Amino acid sequence: MYDLSSVLDVEALEAVRPGTSILVSGPAMTGKEALAYDILADGAAAGQGAVIVSTGDRAETVIETFDERVSGEAYNLGIVDCAGDQSSAESRPQDGIFVHHVASPGDLTGIGIGFTEALEALHDQGVDSGRLALSSLSTMLTYTDRKTVFKFCHVLSSRLDAAEYLGLFTIDASAHDEQTLQVIKQAFDGLIDIRERDGTREAQVRGLTADPSDWTSL
After folding, report:
1. What are the chain's domains?
2. Which of 123, 134, 138, 141 is the most buried (most CB within 10 A)?
């Protein structure tokens, strides 16, 4: 089981089944990516692997951001960089970090291949459990339609289940209509919904237990 409650103090996150995929949804600038990175860094501190699929930041920025969260501790990280201009570069393991470049956030096949190779690289480093963060589905939705993105999420969730990894996928709820959000949500086991009220960011967990959690401050 994965315990995420040290990052977000919600009972539903104390024992999350391996293979679970969670959608992190909320308006822009509400800390969705930061929450996902914090959950991955918390796992890395416990010796778990981390895989980050980045549609906006290049690999160098992802590494810098992750470094800040693990406070200099050694970790094993796989990055699928969909934002760089090195689409022809080969995947390369270095210092516990594996990087795979994809031509664009719309290359869903390439992203799937990169994820598989990242898992293999982490496995070769002796890592047999871990957490994935994909940021963000909203960027993918500017390249392709919601049904295609839904199918991609469904396939990737199945791969996470087979590998017994935990998956976190972020989406900007304010950038899409309700029908698109409903289609995408169907690909996931649970939802972390983020909102901002009176200057305070709050999160609610749904789908992992019978009832939604209370809203909890981030």
Report:
1. 11-210 (3.40.50.300)
2. 134
